[in-house]
């Protein structure tokens, strides 16, 4: 029984899986934060563009 317990304590394959899971979670959080920031910037840019286009009007010459 002690040999099984000692072998279990030496086995690091589970730790590696947990590390990969943590890395994947960290990358996911970074991607979500980046997408949120980019989405806000794009929304502001399109709002400014829509305001400029509306101020020109459909009958104005470029």
**Roughly how many Å apart are the termini?**
85 Å
Number of helices: 2
Strand content: under 5%
Mean pLDDT across all residues, rounded? 84
Principal-axes shape call = rod-shaped
Structural class: mainly alpha
Q: Into which percent range does the helicity of residues fall?
A: over 70%
Order of helices and strands: HH
Protein name: Flp family type IVb pilin
Transmembrane segments: 20-42
Keywords: Membrane, Transmembrane, Transmembrane helix
Structural features, described:
It is a single chain. The protein is mainly alpha-helical and 62 residues long. It has one domain. It has helices spanning 2-10, 13-56.
Secondary-structure map:
Elements: H1 2-10, H2 13-56
Transmembrane segments: 20-42
InterPro entries: Flp_Fap (IPR007047)
Keywords: Membrane, Transmembrane, Transmembrane helix
Summarize this structure as a short list of keywords or feature phrases:
mainly alpha; 2 helices; 62 residues; single chain
Give a short summary of the structure.
The chain is an all-alpha fold and 62 residues long. InterPro entries: Flp_Fap.
């Amino acid at each position: 029984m002690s040999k099984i317990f000692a072998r279990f304590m030496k086995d690091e394959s589970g730790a590696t899986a947990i590390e990969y899971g943590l890395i994947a979670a960290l990358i996911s959080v970074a991607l979500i934060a980046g997408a949120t920031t980019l989405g806000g910037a794009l929304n502001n840019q399109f709002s400014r563009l829509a305001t400029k286009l509306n101020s020109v009007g459909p009958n104005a010459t470029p």
